[in-house]
Design a protein that fits this description.
- InterPro entries: DUF1850.
- This protein is mainly beta.
- Helices cover 5% and strands 46% of the residues.
- The longest helix is centred in the last third of the chain and has 5 residues.
- It is globular and about 35 Å long.
Length: 106
């Protein structure tokens, strides 16, 4: 999921994986230590991105029940999914609304 920081405006990338049927926040790329961002001790490893920002890798944060509540931001925030060269903007579909994102199993 990619979204623009509401104050600084830069893109933040939160990368999720599904492992053994569990939805997991795996990593995050944050171009700056802006308000509300940062590394939580014991939750992954923080590395420089070489451009003044940082990557947090190996976060292994399980998403409870494989679902997440999200208040979708305005188009300025533009919550969106980037996957396999396709982008789906949640903000275009549901700005200002509370949505539930979930992993569905067959």
């Amino acid at each position: 999921m990619v979204w623009n920081h509401s104050v600084a405006g830069f893109a933040v990338e939160d990368c999720f994986i599904v492992k053994a049927g569990q939805w997991i926040l795996d990593s995050s790329h944050q171009p700056d230590f802006a308000a509300g961002l940062g590394h939580t001790l014991g939750r992954g490893k923080m590395l420089s991105d070489g451009q003044g920002g940082y990557h947090i890798q190996n976060m292994a944060v399980k998403i409870s029940g494989n679902q997440m509540l999200l208040r979708v931001g305005s188009l300025a925030v533009n919550h969106r999914f980037d996957y396999r060269k396709k982008t789906i903007s949640l903000s275009e579909l549901a700005a200002g609304q509370r949505v539930t994102l979930k992993i569905l199993r067959n």
